[in-house]
Each structure stands twice: as structure tokens, then as C-alpha cells.
Amino acid sequence: MKHSAPLFLMILMMAVGCKPKVPSEYVQPDELEDMLYEYHVAEAMARNGGTDADYKQTEYFLAVLEKHNVTEAVFDSSLVFYYSHAERLKEIYLRVHERLVNDAKKLGASVGDINRYSQYSETGDTANIWRDETAMLLIPRPTKNRFDFVVKADSTFKLGDSFMFQFMTEHIWQSGSKDAVVCIKTTYEKDSVIQTVNHVSISGIAQLRVPSNRTLNIKELRGFIYLPQNDDDMDARRLMFISQIQLIRFHDKEIQEQHENDVTEATETDSVQRVDIAGGTNQDTLRHIVGTGLRSKSAPFRKGGASNGVATGKDRIKKAE
Q: For the residues 207-211, what does the mean pLDDT come to?
């Protein structure tokens, strides 16, 4: 009985840690990874092949299926299964993406535009300030076809900041329009709002730029990536894998310097005005003291006589006589 409790805990941990197996009638994870990798390699070749890219992609895709001895029906039903297990499909795609990136590096490709800002610190003039998840899988079905995010302004945000939201995409698209929507609503002081929108219809780098505002500070950026649902064919294979999400913030030194100069000039002007007003009050007080001598704080000076029961020097002499 002494060893029954530890043994039970070990079995429980193994049961929790192990993922349920994929039914045998579907493409297994390792093979699906290889098929997706080969498909996207073929897709890139088709994109770089000039005209008839869509036709070539279809041909390459059928060639991948034939190589793995998988029919279109089995592949499509497998995707439907993985749609219901999106986290597992996302893990597969992360490995596919890593293989594609490594292949590109081996062929001498540079890090590219998508990674050029990763080296900058968060407090620098140019910085990647994205702190949310950097990869996701969107499927044109409710609750799985939209990703929302909010970025609140902090002390590192400056007047005149501009932004670039960017990410990499890979698609599997059997039919219908391939058109994801990227939108960012920027809220400034006084609740002024600017909305910027872009459409994503091809694999590769997608970017959305938010211009600078020279007069108002930013309060927040609120955005989303949305993959519309196509009602024409719900069973068609469609998905968009998004990776390497970044939100790059750019400080505009010219706008900042101008703003700082304006603030300094306004402060100096205000200080001068305060000194002049104080000086005028002192001069007026001196005139009253020289002309009348000491006087009661409650009795204003009146030329030629007493005021509020306070006698002048001449009045006191007459009374003494």
C-alpha cells in the first residue's frame, strides 16, 4: 500500500501529459508536417514562377499528395479533424515554419525585413513592442477566424510616434477569395481616433503602417486580424498560419525636439510674465509707503485727511493745542 499513491500519481501525470492519438483514418502529425512543408516549398516555387501561379500551386499540391499516397478526400477530412484540434495543428505549423526558415538560411537568405527590428531595445527610438503571442492559426469558422489585441501606451511612447504592424503568412486555400483583413484603431488624447486597414491575400510578409500624429499623444492601439467566412463552400480547405508577429514603434526625433522647444518657450514666457506681475505689485506698494508712511492694512490711503477713524499727524497736533 505504501507504493500505491506514488504509482497512481505517475499514471495520472502520464495520462494528462499524453495527447490523444490521431485516428488512423487521418494523416498522422509527422506525415502531415512533411506534406505541409513540401506544399509550401512548392507554393514558393509557384509564386516565383511568373504567370499561372494558381494553376502551378494546384499541380504542386497534387504532386505532394501523390508522393505521400494520400487522396484529396483523406487530406481534406484530416484537415477537418485538425480544425477541431487547432492547437495541435498550430504546433505542426510552427515546426513547418522553422524548417522553412532554416532552409532559407542555408540557401544564403538574409534575415529579411520581418526580423530587422528584433535587435532593438524596447526603450530605443526604434523598437519591437509586441508582447502578445507571435504565432497563430486562423480558420474561416466562427471563434477561430479572428485574433484581437490591445496595446496600451506607457512612458516609452512619445509625441509623433508611428508604428508598423507586420507578420508572416502561409496559406492553404482550395477555393474562394483569399482575403484576410488587418485593422488597427489608434486612440489619441481627447478621444480622437484614426483607423488604418489593410488586406492580406498572398503568402509572405504582411504590413500595416500607423502614421504619426504631431499634436496628440497616443492612449492605445486596438486591432485585429480577421479571416472572413466564405459561405459558398464550407467544406473547402482554407487556413492561414501567422507567425513572427511584430509591432514596431518609431520615435520621430524632429517632432520630439520641436515639441520640447515649444514647451520650453511656453514655460519661459510664463515665468517672465509672473516676474513682471510681481514687480508691478512691489512698485505700487513702495509708492504707497513713501507717500503716506505706515498705514493700517484695513484702511486704504486717502489724500487730505483721516480715513476710517485713523488720524493724520496734523489732526493730532490740533487736538493737543
A: 94
